[in-house]
Amino acid sequence: MVGVTKPLTPVTSATPPPLPPPPPAELKFEGNPGKNPLGEASFRDMCSRLPSVLARTTRMAWETDRRAVLLLLVCQLLVGAGAAVQLAFTATAMQPVLGSGPAAGRLRAALPALVVIAVAAAVTRVATALSSYADGRITPRLTTGADTALVEAVCRTEAAAYAEPGFADRQEAAEMGVTRSRMMVQDATRFTAALVRMVTAGGVLSVLHPLMFPLLVLAVVPAGAGAVLSARVTYETHYANVGDRTVRQMMRWWSTTPKYSDEVRANGMTGYLLHWYRALSGRIDRRTLTAAPRMLRIVLTSSALGGVFLVGTWATLAWLAVTGRVDLAAAATAVVAVQTSLAALSQLVIHGAAMFHTSLYLADMRSFLDLVQELAPRRGELTAPARVAEIRVDEAVYQYPGKESPAVDHVSLTLRRGEIVAVVGENGSGKSTLTRLITGIYLADKGRVTWDGVDLARADPDTVWARTGLVPQNFAQWPLRARENVTLGQPRTVDDGPVWDALDTVGMRGAIEELPGGLDTLLARELFGGCELSGGQWQRLACSRALYRRPPLLILDEPTSQMDVRGERDVLDALKATAADQITIVVTHQLENTKVADRIVVMRHGRITEQGPYEELAHGGGLFAELLALSKDR
Ligand SMILES: Nc1ncnc2c1ncn2[C@@H]1O[C@H](COP(=O)(O)OP(=O)(O)OP(=O)(O)O)[C@@H](O)[C@H]1O
């Protein structure tokens, strides 16, 4: 997806100053099949989302903590009732206050109503505080639920999904949904609280005079439309920026992780990477800034319209009072009711727009989760045999999405327990892809792979992967303790004995014993108290991890590429020692190491071109013999 347009010119004293680095590649977010979901949505469509967002939020909150939801609902009702009582008793209190007679007498007459107002205000405050408490009980768990669902869905999806176009961008958009889910309950609570307050204040106002409420609504509707339209512009900007943000996020990690810090510095990449980072950030900012005048126009227009209607509301109230259509006490109550309704309507609009805004990001999250669900392995219920004796690959074909030719092209192969098979071939010939088909990480597009007759396309993948051990070319250096770096994936025991045995087989006992905490040492130099291993030591550890599992199928992809000769010897000896109990596959470019294998399979352009024992192929005049001669002619 990311294309660098031109290699950088090397700097020598004779060459002119280097050209500025090329700009970063532009990406387009391909979520929701490349279509902004707001592109064709009308204002009405947008507003009609709110009830469903509210319903969904309530459902999710209900599933998280029922008691907290009930508390929240009761508090909302209390807040509404409190507002109604305060307004109704304001009118009652106003009658004696605005009446005739001495001030002390008028105040005394108003006292009971004032006490009721004070109690109602206190109840409202307590209910509001309890609402926040209930929200505090729901939101963290709801957010964690959404976050965990996303992580779990991605971990459980078919590995092939990562190669689907736009997968990473949609994942990035979904991450935003997780972040926004923090606001969901709060927005919904504030929205409903404002709704209840507005209905009660509006009710009181309508009772005072039927003209007042419609006018008030008119005063706030432009602000509502403005807020929703602003949310739409913000989302459009976010939508346009998703692709660039994905790349920026990725580049940020690659540029700043200590893992690659040597390479970045000693290859003079810092300037280039910072240029990329600044260019990407600049592009994101430019899009965001382009939206600013649109936002300003929306806000100014909606405020002007709202202002005109608000002036109309106050003018109507003054006219009603002056012409005696409402008495003075009612007019005074109306002033309070207008203020309350106005505040409630503004809150309604602000939180309605926020809910609408959040719903857009949540929709991205849901659509990503649906996609991942669609791509989740659905292979069947068959169980892979516990001790597989024979694996057959029958005419298997696998082509990566977007590629013009298959990486594995009509390959047939039989592997038997007790056998060590070496797979060799030039770069890109399909060796790693073949191992992915044999382990069931990918399913063949055509043909099939069977374990003792069980078709991997119909077997539960967890039962398959419980029986495999894999050291991939790019193995993970887990930021965990040394012990977990061996036991991760299959902690068979609470005893360290087998862990040391696995470390012994790859000659790592000494290196681990020298670490300050032995097996308890954290292998992450980024973290305080963490230690770092050398490249070859990490590779030995990755091999010990696979050997520790004692799997019926062991696959090592370039297992010794970073090891010294002793480490290489240790690993090859370990393979020979355990070979009788398992099927062993070694992918390697070290052709001398293939002597350990019973059979060598040679691949070219996704096909098997020759296979046989070392001596036969070494003198067979084929690709293997050619590569062997090249490796010796150095
Ligand atoms: N995740 C992927 N997405 C798209 N294409 C891929 C992916 N992985 C590998 N390929 C392509 O599939 C082909 C076979 O790759 P594979 O990694 O199987 O080769 P290999 O023989 O293991 O190579 P090497 O010796 O370099 O490790 C190559 O053309 C490669 O570009």
TrEMBL record:
<dbReference type="Pfam" id="PF00005">
    <property type="entry name" value="ABC_tran"/>
</dbReference>
<keyword id="KW-0812">Transmembrane</keyword>
<feature type="transmembrane region" description="Helical">
    <location>
        <begin position="68"/>
        <end position="89"/>
    </location>
</feature>
<feature type="domain" description="ABC transporter">
    <location>
        <begin position="391"/>
        <end position="630"/>
    </location>
</feature>
<feature type="region of interest" description="Disordered">
    <location>
        <begin position="1"/>
        <end position="41"/>
    </location>
</feature>
<dbReference type="GO" id="GO:0005524">
    <property type="term" value="F:ATP binding"/>
</dbReference>
<feature type="transmembrane region" description="Helical">
    <location>
        <begin position="191"/>
        <end position="209"/>
    </location>
</feature>
<keyword id="KW-0547">Nucleotide-binding</keyword>
<keyword id="KW-0067">ATP-binding</keyword>
<dbReference type="InterPro" id="IPR039421">
    <property type="entry name" value="Type_1_exporter"/>
</dbReference>
<keyword id="KW-1133">Transmembrane helix</keyword>
<feature type="compositionally biased region" description="Pro residues">
    <location>
        <begin position="15"/>
        <end position="25"/>
    </location>
</feature>
<feature type="transmembrane region" description="Helical">
    <location>
        <begin position="328"/>
        <end position="350"/>
    </location>
</feature>
<dbReference type="InterPro" id="IPR036640">
    <property type="entry name" value="ABC1_TM_sf"/>
</dbReference>
<feature type="transmembrane region" description="Helical">
    <location>
        <begin position="215"/>
        <end position="235"/>
    </location>
</feature>
<protein>
    <submittedName>
        <fullName>ABC transporter ATP-binding protein</fullName>
    </submittedName>
</protein>
<feature type="transmembrane region" description="Helical">
    <location>
        <begin position="109"/>
        <end position="128"/>
    </location>
</feature>
<dbReference type="InterPro" id="IPR003593">
    <property type="entry name" value="AAA+_ATPase"/>
</dbReference>
<dbReference type="InterPro" id="IPR003439">
    <property type="entry name" value="ABC_transporter-like_ATP-bd"/>
</dbReference>
<feature type="transmembrane region" description="Helical">
    <location>
        <begin position="296"/>
        <end position="322"/>
    </location>
</feature>
<keyword id="KW-0472">Membrane</keyword>
<dbReference type="InterPro" id="IPR027417">
    <property type="entry name" value="P-loop_NTPase"/>
</dbReference>
